[in-house]
Design goal:
This protein is mainly alpha-helical. The chain is 58% helix and 4% strand. Strands 1-2 form a two-stranded antiparallel ribbon. Helix 4 packs antiparallel against helix 7. The longest helix is centred in the middle third of the chain and has 22 residues.
């Protein structure tokens, strides 16, 4: 366990930003200029960040925001506001970079906070690998097992065509794990009895 550093705020801000952007997406077609297209990535570099806050449909938004809420609060409580925000944004950017590397000529937009959330989960699993999570909301398992399952699914997904940017998930997860390994050396562990 780690001591509480600050009361979380960025988890809520990122959720609110995603919800507001989703509403705006459905009111206008201009969201397309904020989506990440690997083919246009360097002509539209802002999309490395803006695409994180867009989502394909309500289900995509809902599941990402549920994951962000639970995993985000868990990590933000451990590392504090500033580090949490940095991990989220950098993981999202690296997730988009993963999509770019895997499919550099794609003109299919990459949108969603999944790469950023995978980064959050990657950091959290290094800092608290045996944190209990509930698979499908029913079965308690350690976080490390969930992350291994997700990683295997996304790795397999790299070899089968779909509308899911598995490379963005894996890139976000990898950068999150690297953050976790770095932070683990500097965070003070406190034992609770």
């Amino acid at each position: 366990m780690y001591p509480l550093i600050e009361k979380p705020i960025w988890t809520y801000i990122f959720i609110l930003a995603c919800v507001v952007m989703f509403i705006l997406q459905n009111l206008t077609q201009y969201w397309i200029y904020l989506a990440f297209f690997p083919y246009y990535a360097f002509k539209m570099p802002w999309t490395f960040i803006t695409s994180i806050f867009l989502h394909a449909d309500f289900e995509h938004l809902l599941f990402n925001m549920i994951a962000l809420f639970f995993f985000g609060l868990g990590l933000e409580n451990i590392v504090g506001r500033k580090l949490f925000a940095i991990i989220f944004i950098i993981s999202g950017i690296i997730g988009n970079l993963g999509y770019l590397i895997a499919d550099p000529f794609s003109s299919i937009p990459g949108i969603g906070a999944s790469g950023a959330i995978y980064g959050i989960v990657g950091t959290l699993v290094i800092l608290t690998p045996f944190r209990r999570v509930f698979l499908y909301g029913l079965f308690p398992i350690p976080l490390i097992l969930l992350v291994i399952l997700w990683a295997l699914i996304d790795f397999a997904g790299l070899f089968s065509p779909s509308t899911i940017a598995h490379s963005a998930h894996l890139a976000g997860l990898i950068i999150g794990i690297l953050f976790g390994l770095y932070l683990r050396k500097y965070l003070v562990k406190v034992e609770y009895y």
